[in-house]
Amino acid sequence: MSPRPTIKTIAKETGLSTATVSKALNGSPQVRPDTRDKILDVAKKLGYEMNLSGVQLRTGKTHQIAMITVISSPHDDEWGGVGYAQLVYGVSDVLHDTPYRVVQYQASSYEESFDIIKRIVANRKADGIILPGTRVKDKRVEFMQAQDFPFVTYGLTEAEVPHAYVDTHNQRIVSICVERLIAKGHKRIAMLNADMVLMYSRDRENAYRQTLQDAGLKFDPSLVANGELTPAFGREQFFEMSMFDDPPTAYFCANEATAMGVLSGFHVRGYEHGRDAVVIATDDLNVSQYFSPPITTCYLPISKPSQVLGEFMLKLLNGEAPEKLQKLFVPDLIERSSDELRK
Amino acid sequence: MSPRPTIKTIAKETGLSTATVSKALNGSPQVRPDTRDKILDVAKKLGYEMNLSGVQLRTGKTHQIAMITVISSPHDDEWGGVGYAQLVYGVSDVLHDTPYRVVQYQASSYEESFDIIKRIVANRKADGIILPGTRVKDKRVEFMQAQDFPFVTYGLTEAEVPHAYVDTHNQRIVSICVERLIAKGHKRIAMLNADMVLMYSRDRENAYRQTLQDAGLKFDPSLVANGELTPAFGREQFFEMSMFDDPPTAYFCANEATAMGVLSGFHVRGYEHGRDAVVIATDDLNVSQYFSPPITTCYLPISKPSQVLGEFMLKLLNGEAPEKLQKLFVPDLIERSSDELRK
DNA sequence: CAACTTAAGTTAAACGTTTATATTTTTGAC
DNA sequence: GTCAAAAATATAAACGTTTAACTTAAGTTG
């Protein structure tokens, strides 16, 4: 087994210097076309593949994209990471034919994720960072901006300076879903939402209030719950709210896991969907079509934003301006239930 | 902003040579304890963190663990990667306080995954490989063994030479579940299983046949289905099998996604769980407790095997023998339904 | 106390790249 | 043909680390 070829091998083989080889491989215009071809031929013949640590040492380029995920407790809640996971796949997919790889950095809290980011930036452990789970005021975003470090968020923030982001159009989602419920005659609409430190939770709550107000309905804070979007959360909240004197007739869930929890609560308490109450949700895994019963959702396959996340990252690394790299996706309403309460 | 400290900085600061600094940082015995302490102090004071590409260039150590995942089409089936995803989390978690990182390599077919592995090995792009989804005869495993490249599989193989692996005890799972169903009076038990090229599918089918035979029941090939373990697969198979003249009264599903699909089929066709048929499943996300109705499962939280996967990898890199690094987990039966058909 | 061993450090080279600078070759004008 | 300018290629240093080989100082032994 011969040792793996380096530019030195190619240089020896072609009788040229390593400098010329390097330039040829990087497509520099200062090497004659015919010599470039010769070099590329030999490189291919030898099965040459560049040594990333050599490049990295010299240029600082790591060819790594750090993906930060915050999971409070990976052991307790097995469903937890599912959403993030799909993100990783989409991004990996886009980077497939580039020299970039996705590297996973896992934090158990916001603070820890900030520390991790500081270390990545300080030690140039990656060329760029992908950050899901943005907060309204996000110190991490401010930090990366201050350090001029390339990053794309999945989610908006209230940053002074524009940054690259991808997100779903949360306001639209909420208005689509809540307006539908109102049109179907619902007056008591519960919203099971994520933690309010997250930007998208705040956006959704605002849109929820606005939509109610536009329809002349009163906002009732007891119908809004915030927490980790798990099935457990959905079920607990259903148990609580269904005991109210004037319980909700519709549950609007921020994801499928939560919706599944509410449906589970229905089953436990003998509720029937469409008779006692209905569930509607935001959906990115399209698994709600297999619920019993299938529920109406606002669906955006998570592969879409995650692909764009990867594309934006590549463009960012190519020097494109962050303010040009912003995209909001509008999900489709998928009607699977009438969502009208039968008398 | 001062440039990040290197061993040179530490050397200058302490008045020692870079060689001594390097040795001290690596805990070499040929440096006096007090000088070592001094060096470590200065290193901490400066916030020194080793430059991995420097190390890699010199030693060949990449500090990367490659995680190979095969997903036929990341776009179509959104549920697909969920299982793998949890694996990544568990492994990342174990490696958290080590210099190792998990790097995702995604393939769309067995062949492509083999190519990827060849490239990783040939170009030493990682220090070790974690390979889920093993086949009965797995060329990739043979290749890595021939190349003496460290790897741990999630799943068994029929390899000549022993290798490091983690897996669930598939035979036990099947006998636990199928014996239970038989004890509850079921005679027609369907098995919804993964593709037969996968080792665990074969093991499960063998155990299934054996358990039936031990109970004096006849094996009926039309009650066994193989395919991608998605909700869609579960539902389709239910639709087909429920039309048989002598349809199954129990569906044993190889994972939760498939079980969800069967339950969805129940709902569509007006089947009632416990009256018309029952569903039982292998479970690693513990989400089946939120199904409507919750079903009985053989549960092993995926965080467990994935943790051990990471631990085994670290031990392997520490020079431990692969044949010492083998573990089978036996799941717990979680009874959530009587699984007896009422008359 | 000479002769040797051991301990603790140092020096310098090497890993695979890129790139500023230097050198050689080619080109074009006269 | 000569000469300068332009184009193509070569030389060598640098990135941060480890490590074989070497040096020096300090013990140990008979």
UniProtKB/TrEMBL annotation, chains A, B:
Pfam families: LacI (PF00356), Peripla_BP_3 (PF13377). Residues 5-59 form the HTH lacI-type domain. SMART domains: HTH_LACI. Keywords: DNA-binding, Transcription, Transcription regulation. One of its GO terms (molecular function) is DNA-binding transcription factor activity. InterPro entries: HTH_LacI (IPR000843), LacI/GalR-like_sensor (IPR046335), Lambda_DNA-bd_dom_sf (IPR010982), Peripla_BP_I (IPR028082). This is LacI family transcriptional regulator. It comes from Maritalea mobilis.
